[in-house]
Every structure is written in structure tokens, then in C-alpha cells.
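Recap for those who missed Tuesday's class. We walked through two folding examples back to back. For each one, the amino acid string is listed first and its predicted C-alpha cells come directly after. Nothing is annotated here on purpose, so try labeling regions yourself before you check the end of the notes.
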Amino acid sequence: MKNGQRGSDPGAAAPGAAPRTWQAQALPDEGTGTAGRGGLRILILEDDPADAVLEQRLLTGAGLDFTAVVVDTAASYAQQIDAFRPDVILADFSLPGFSGEGAIKIAQERCPDTPLVVVSGTIGDEAAVELIRQGATDYILKDRPARLAPVIRRAVAEAEQRSRVARMQAHLQQAQRLESIGRLADGVAHELNNQVGAILSYAAFIRDQATGTLQRGTRLDLPGISRNAGQIEQAGQRVIKLVGQLREAGSRDVIRAELIDLNKVIGGIDELLRSTAGASTELRLCLSSRLWPVTAYPGQVEQILLNLTTNARDAMPDGGSFSIQTQNVTLGPGEAADLGLSSGSYVCLTARDSGTGMEPEVIEHAFEPFFTTKPFAEGGGLGLASVYGTTRQAGGTAAISSAPGTGTAVTVWLPAAIPGHPAGIPGQRSP
């Protein structure tokens, strides 16, 4: 209706005036999602009052329960995003001195999780695709007003689903962290007992040497005492290092993503990984030199390593071998597509054990939260799900290769963060 005429409906604001509010009550049993729980908050960016009124009448007629605020300038739009906190935004594509692109940019900065629907009288498919690429949820042509209510319902439902998934992931990460601490306790306690036992044994040797010397009146075996004291010192240092790594893993801030060297993260918790694997497990580290850096949460990477080590230990109740390998890889289009990744450079981490292996039907569900083949009392169900979720969050993926009696290999791919080459170094192969 951009013909210069302005509507006078009380639900619309005059150009440049303060925002006006429209309230509509849903018809019985018509509201869904947020609307059905007390009304949607809809922010309408529109400089033609008649169009703003028409949009609200269409939504009322469709049975939506909502409160709408209409604005027509960039300043009032930004202000109402913060003050009104809308559930959905309807943004005109073209306003005097302001555009749909500008509206999307402000929304992405202030409320990136709020769906934004562009409304336009004339917009081509290419322009619409570009707006969606920039962050718009959908677009509606003004000559097809019947799409307005369905598009809003779908956009709000999808936003609510994303919010639920995000909350579930947050709960999953917290539960995984608590579970990891609990499952580590047994291995750490075992290692601490070993070291304290060594300290007590060598202290007893020194005492016996001193006692025997006093009783027999012989010369004190100073070299022997020195060796035993050295063993006590080494065991004490191992205890201090183990406790320090455990405290660091339990308290590290995992919210901050950093540019990290995966080899250094592995080396930093080497003792903790060995104590988690257990004395009957041979742990081998095969770390590639000149490993590319990755951008990730250090604490969560440590959790990936601890979960993989714990799973390997549980798969080898009588002991066995467990290896952690890192290497640089470059995935071509075909390889990347098979993994659900973009082609480019990645850092690959493979954890391989000589355990019992998995049946195909177990592999199929292994990354699902709470899936486990172990009794509940033994824990499990979150480790591999957390590995997969954390890896996907970092832009990578994870996969399992296993068969009964042949052991299991879990491989993780993380995007390489190579300075000057955000997408990796095309054509470079792993060493």
C-alpha cells in the first residue's frame, strides 16, 4: 500500500511517533506453541500504518493470541527489541532510510534466536535467498497475505524447538560432566592408592634400614636410603601432579573457545588418562608432529579424551591396549560429504582399544544420549553422546569403527584453524 496514504487505525503508529500496541485474543483452541501459553509478542517494523493494521487483522482472523508493537524507524526498532523482547519480528523490506538488511543485522546483534520474517510488496527470489542467508527466517509477499499466519506459527514453533534442543544440550553437558567426575573416581582412587602404597613401602624400607643399623651397630646404608627416599619423592610428585590435573579438569572454564594444540591438551592430562585407563591397560600416545591448531573449548576437549578413555577401559575388563593418535588430514568433497562435513583441513583424533568390540546395532545407536549396553548401576549412556555433541558443536564430527572381538576405534574430526586459511589448505595431505 505504498501509495502515500496513511491509515488511521488506533493499532498503528503515525510516522515517527511512539510505538503503538495492538492486543488480540485467540479464538478457542486455535493458539499453538507460545501463543497458546499466553500470547505471542510480535514486533512489526512497517512505515505504512494501513499495512501494519492489515497484518494484525489477518493474524487475529487466523486465531493467533498476540500483542503487537508497531515501529517505523531504526531507532525505535532497536529500542523495542530490547524493551518488548518479541517472540517474532515482521520487518518491511524497504523503509525510508532503512532496509530489510539493516533490520536483520540489528536483530542478529540483539536477539539472534528470535525469528524474523521479511514482508515485501516486491522482492525477487534471489533477494529473498540472500535475506535468509543473512539471517531472516522466511519472507512473505504482501499480495499473498494468507501465508502470514502459517509462516509465523511455523517460525515460532521452530524457534521453540531450537530452544528446547539448546536446553537439552546444556543439561546433557552438565550431566556428562558430573558423570565423568563420578566415573573417574574409581580410576583415580586406584592410582592414588598405588602411589601412597609405594610411599609407605619405601618409608618402611628406610625405617628397617635405620633400625637394623642401630640394632647391629653396622654402618648406615646411605646409598640404599638415598634410593628409597628418591622413590618416595617420585611417588609424591606423581600424586601432586595427578591431583593437580584432576582439579584443573574439574574447575576449568569450558565456556571460552580458544586456539589450542590438541597434542598439548593430551600431554597436559597424560597422567589423568593413564590413571583412568587403569594399571592393566597399556596406553600409547601416537601424536603427529606439527599438528594444526583447532578452535575449541579446552575443558570439553579434555572431557572427550576422558570419556573415550573410560569407554575403552570398560570395554577391556581384563586389560588390553589403548592408543590415542592425532594427525592432520585434508578431506576432499567426496570424503567430506560422506562425513557430513565441508571439504578442507581437519585435525583427526583416533582412540583405539583392543576390547570386546560392538555389534552393528549397537554402533547405530552409540551416539544417542542415554543409550548404553551396561547395567544402570555401572553408569554409561552419556559418554559417546557427549563426544559426538561436543565435536559437532565445534564444527566437526565423530564416527565409530568396530566389530565383535576386534576392538573399537572412535575417530573425531575437528576443523583446523590455520592462519590465513580459514577453510584449510586445499590439496595438502596428512603426513
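Example two. Treat it independently of the first, because the proteins are unrelated.
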Amino acid sequence: MKARGTPGTVAAVASLGTSPLPGLGDPADPIRVLIADDEPALRLALSDLLAQEERVALVGAASDADEAIVLAERLRPKVALVDVKMPGGGGPHAARGIVSSSPDTRVIALSAFEDRPTVLEMLRAGAVGYLVKGTAADQIVDSIARVAEGGTSLSEEVVGGLVDTLTTQLRREEHDRADREQRREKIERFVAGDGLAIAYQPIMDLRTRVVAGYEALARFRSLPPRPPDEWFAEAVELELGVQLELTAIQQALQGLDRIPAHAYLSVNASHRAAMTPRLLETLGPRAHRVMVEITEHEPISDYPRLGAALAALRARGTRVAIDDAGAGFASLRHTLQLAPDHVKLDISLTRSIDTDRARRAMASALISFADEMDMTIVAEGIETQRELDTLLELGVRYGQGFFLAEPGPLA
């Protein structure tokens, strides 16, 4: 085999790791190769190997990922031998950068390991070959030639494990896809109204026990049974959250004819549902009989936009409530930002308020704030006479809970 240049010269430049090399020898169109490895000894060995090959020309060597990207963009090698583990972000970073900055460069990964995750990571990053360090010299050169011609190259040590990994991964992805489709079908069935029912819980004047309104609560018929919050959270995950909320609101509105004229209907909506024009369309001409409770299904990032949407609802007579006040920072922030008509005291504050000084103090502060801002407090989750008596002492006028009436169908 014809020697191309002197090994000593090539090895010396390669060991520096930063200097490009001109093509060596005169064969027609040799394959221009870049080496990227942080081990000087390996760069030297590869340089010596390539120096003896008339089919290839070593054009540069890099000692880290960022340097490899810079050299690839400047030198435009046909093939880059890239170490998987090296400074500057590692092989995957180098591979992505090289493919991006020099699209015609084909990347072969070099590694002391044939672990499957590393192989897959490098292939995803754009490598078309994967060689385990210690591969025979003629196999390395053959691999360079193969990928330079548009093919791929994997060490025998890699192939078996990679096939097993890909097979397992494909099976897992297929299982996940089937599971997602099955879950989506269930949510779509609820969105269509099948399996979705509405229970109505009275909201009462705590002094007179006269019904002031009804909260509409979604109920899902499924086996095994699951709480409504889980179904709504899953709908959000599957990008069907707003559709499911609007279906529940639409079904809840069907009960308005059986609600006394003086009473309102309270429906739950996330901020995303509240901001869609479809909510106003859904409420229609009876918007003035509805109160929209803003829930915390998702964090709110655009209060001005939500405020504008709620203003449009209020212009039609719809009232706004903040749900679960006192349950966390978000609900208090909603109250400050949105200036609701009603503030619903969370069950976590109502529960045992007659015996818990901390709950009583927190509730008292919220009630005082609501009074100052002309907001109406509604206590949720009242379950005992003593809780009711304490709330009345604190100045709460309206409330709901199992002690007063359980959710159920309208008479």
C-alpha cells in the first residue's frame, strides 16, 4: 500500500488537536477526514493509520466538541470521526453541530462502549456510523469509505444490541401509542356527551337556607370510577381540555329551566376555556343567569387577556368567581388580578374551622378582604353545624356542602 506523507509529520499535527492539515498525496478525490477525540494517543494512532491510506486524507483534528464543529464548518470534511465522550458537550453535541454547519459531512461515532442508549443518542444526533474503539484498521477505513458513499456503518458489537433495543423501543412506543389512542377515545366520547352527567349542588343563604344558586359538577361514568379532576387533567394532557369543559357547561345549562328564576347557575372553567369565544357562544342569551368559576387546572400567564375575556362575559351579565380561595398562592393571585364578584372559600379552610385557630384566622382575613373589595364570600365544603355557626360568626353569608345539601339531579 502506498504511503502518503510521513507518519511523524501527521502525528505531530494531529496531537496538537487544532491545526488543519492539507490533503496528503495525489490520488484522485481522496476522502477528506476530520478526527475529533480528546485523547492525544488515539488522535495519534488514527493519524498514523490514515497517513498510510491512499483513499483518505486527514484534513484536521479536534480535541473537543466545539472545536470539531468549528473545523468541520471551515474544512468541510467528507467524514468526521467523532468520539462519544469528550469535553464541550460530548459526541451528540458535536454531531448535531457538524451536521448543521457542514451538511455534507458524514459523522461516524467512536466509543469505547457499545451501550445501547449511547448508540441511539448518537444516531439521533445525526451519526450514520458507530465504531467501537479497537476495531481493526481495515474495518475503520472501509467504514469511512462506506459512509462517504452514502451508506451506514455499525460495528458488529453494536448491531445485535441495537436491534434488540430498537425492537423493545418500538414495542414500547406502539404500546404507548395504543394506550394514548384508547385514552383519547374515552375523552372524545365524553366530549360528545356520552358518559357525562351533571350533578347540581345548592348554594344557600346560610341564615335563611334559601337556595341562591347551584354549582354544576361533572360526573363521568367509567369503570373503574375516577374523580372528575383526573378526567379533566387527562383531557388537558390530550389537548381536549377546553372541549370537555365546554361540553360539561353546555350540559349544565340544560338544567337552567328547572332552576328558580332568582337563582344562578355556577359552572367551572379553566382560564383557557374562559378565554375562548366559544364560551360566550355556549352561554348564549342566558349568560346573565350564569356565574363562571375560574379554576386552577393550569397556571395563568396572561392575566390581561383573561381579564378582557371576562369583561366580555360580564357585559352580558355573567358573574365571575374565583374557586378554591385560600388553597394556594395561585387562587389569591387570581383574586387580586381579576377582581371577581364572588370568592369561594376552599374546603381546606372550611374543614374544622370551628376548632382550628389557624384556619379561622386565615378565613377571617379573606372575608375581611372580600368585604373591603365588595366581593361575596361563598364557603365550600360545610359538613357540620359548628362549621356553619362559625362561618356565620365570621360574616359568611353563603355556602354549600354536604351538611346543607348533597350534589344530585335537579327536581
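Answers for example two:
Confidence is low (pLDDT under 50) at residues 1-27.
The chain has two domains: 7-163, 192-399.
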